[in-house]
Amino acid sequence: MSRVAWAVTGALGALFVLVFIAFSVGRYPVAAGDLLTLLWAKLTGGSHGLDSAAETVVWKIRGPRVVAAVLIGAALAAAGAAYQNMFRNPLVSPDILGVSAGAAVGAVLGIFLSLNVIMIQSLAFAFGLGAVALVYVVSNAVRGHDPLLVLVLAGVVVGSLLGACVALMKYLADPYNQLPAITFWLLGSLASASPDDVWSTLPLLLIGLLPMWLLRWRINLLSLDDEEARALGVQTGRIRVIVIAAATLMTSAAVAISGVIGWIGLVIPHFARMLVGPDFSRLLPTSIFLGAGFLLAVDTLARTVARIEIPLGVLTAFVGTPLFLWQLATARRGWQ
Amino acid sequence: MKLEAKSLDIGYRDRRVGSDISLALETGEVLCLLGPNGSGKTTLFRTLLGLLPAQGGHVAMDGADLSSRARDEVARLVSYVPQAHAAFFPFTVQEVVLMGRTAHLGMFSSPSRHDREVAGAVLERMRLAPLADSIYTRISGGERQLTLIARALAQEARIVVMDEPTANLDFGNQVRVLEHIQTLARSGIGILLSTHDPDQAFLCANRVAMLHGGRLARLGAPDEVITAESLKQIYGVDVTITRVAMEGGRERRVCIPRGAL
Predict the structure, then answer these.
(1) From the CA atom positions of chain B, what is the Rg in Å?
(2) A258: in domain
(3) pLDDT of A155
(4) What pLDDT is recorded for position A331?
(5) Which residues in chain A are contacts of B109 at CB distance < 8 A?
(6) Is the model's pLDDT at A221 over the cut of 90?
């Protein structure tokens, strides 16, 4: 097997191991053998002869949470990989482009108006798309500066505007019900992930993933200069819009159930690129496996290391910041 | 096959860069475009490739207007070699060359085994096979330029447009690129290239076009077009053109600047 095949298989294998660990550890530990028994019983419909508490913990409490962590980690990493190619920049991510902040405004508005999950996801998507469009328009309109600098600055500026919108809604929110919900949600958490959340998010993620996978070869060419890509026969404008919409849909759907979880979309695709190279047909699956595994590991830590839940956004930042700084210091030679 | 510009006006809606440019390029010939900085060479190339809309006149392939064709259709007819640049992501040389196959692929397809074979053959032809798995961002400027030419060949268009293919290359790589250009023309590909060095036009071109102030100042055989007078007109410097005897009784023309030098 080639090095690339090893890396992809390794990432997938690590994800399976992590899923197994995530199901078994926690306040109510479930032994590996019991897990297998439960799984067998579930598959065959037979009886397992174990404590019914174990069954509840595994299928009702940990199940949705583990699946949500896998889906959201995968979605954020896939969206990050697409954005990085799209903006020809390995330092771009849903956070930097203002997508997360935009989706957060939409979702907080949804919570503020006490809407259901699907409406919250729709609002998150609309605001996320609006935010990335605004950043893109601003960075295209400003000429004569380093485009990367302008893009990042535009993202920061739009992000802070959206932050102000969130602050306003927090200020106006009912301090006994809505405000704690909003605050807790903004920190990022999967503690309240329900089967409904998982079922409403899964189709959105697949809808976002489909065009990315189908267009995987052309996405490689979008990382070239626009004219060069067109001279090679790619209709860059159309494909760019499709892929940005797909990545934004995935980010927004994720943000709507988990809150803002930073760093995954930035660090994971970058890491995946170091492992398997920039070809999107390998980068996308590797990013997905690594992103899913990373968020699952962080979420498992978040619910096990301390007596209280540690907010996910806080943990990913603690893990992501040093990783990012290390990449910034070492990886530049890889892409310039 | 024949790529033609018919009384072409080039530029942007609010800024006309050049006007009334007519020229034609047949397969198997090398047409060299000379012109000072800002004379509109790159804008002309972009218009010929259909990357910019013509402001007047039109671009035709074998008499049929190119502007109405889809992007991938144009790319199968005319390929483009930009100046060697730093890429954004560390693709391998082989992957960069494979990108040249995109115009032959369906919207949702990735390169097939046939595409890999074409790319492999082109790499052999350009003597780049040993570099196939090297990272494009880490090879030398000359190797990058050759890789971009290989990518244009993988595109299998009969006309190749090259924007200053020898810019920023050392002497050896300049000569190597010019040799490749001649070989390609002999194999039946039409090449349009721009350069800043009139000596290169003497070395590799069948015909020379001079662009000056947005107009086609001259067009014809190198010996007729590149004269002390025309170089004075477009570059504003005094030049002596001498003949140098080469082995085998051949002669070659060379431009030498006069004046303060």
Answers:
(1) 19
(2) yes
(3) 86
(4) 59
(5) 217
(6) yes
Quote the pLDDT of residue A136.
83
Q: What is the CA radius of gyration of chain A?
A: 20
**Residue from A216, A230, A276, A280 to probe the interface with B (highest B Cβ count within 10 Å):** A230
HSE-up (13 A, CA, CB side) for residue A54: 19
B103–A233: do the CB atoms touch at under 8 Å?
A: yes
Burial level of A298, CB count in 10 A (0-12/13-18/19+)?
A: buried
Domain residues for the domain of B190 are 2-257
Least confident residue range of A248-262, B1-15, B27-41: A248-262
pLDDT single digits (tens) A148-191: 678 878 888 898 999 999 999 989 988 888 888 888 888 888 88
Cα dist from A85 to A40, A78, A107, B157, B226, whole Å: 42, 11, 27, 27, 45
Are residues B204 and B221 in contact, defined by beta-carbon separation less than 8 angstroms?
Answer: no
Mutate to test the interface with B, among A232, A234, A238, A242 (most CBs of B within 10 A): A232
Q: Which residue has the higher pLDDT, B119 or A35?
A: B119
Query: Do residues B105 and A217 make contact, with C-beta atoms less than 8 angstroms apart?
Result: yes
The verdict on residue A157 lying in a domain is yes
Measured between its terminal Cα atoms, the distance across chain B in Å is 44
* Per-residue tokens: A269: 């695709």
Total number of domains in chain A: 1
Residue of B nearest to A223 (CA): B88
Reported as a pLDDT band with limits 50, 70 and 90, residue B100 is very high
Give the three-state DSSP class for A146.
coil
Q: Do B91 and A278 touch (CB under 8 A)?
A: yes
Cα–Cα distance for residue pair B79/B162, rounded to 1 Å = 9
- Dihedral pair phi/psi, residue B140, rounded to 5°: -75, 165
B191 sits in which H/E element:
strand B190-195
Q: Both tokens of residue B80?
A: 């483009």
Q: Token digits for B61?
A: 């392939």
Tokens of residue B168, six digits: 């920023």
Chain A partners within 8 Å of B71 (Cβ): 230, 233-235
Q: Write out the two tokens for A36.
A: 């297998």
pLDDT in tens, A86-103: 888 777 888 878 888 898
In B, residues 88-107, which contact A (CB 8 Å cutoff)? 88-92, 95, 99-100, 102-103, 105, 107
The confidence score (pLDDT) of residue B229 equals 93
Domain range for A112: 70-335
Mean pLDDT score of chain A: 87
Q: What is the CATH number of the domain that holds A99?
A: 1.10.3470.10
Residue contact B90–A273, C-beta within 8 A: yes
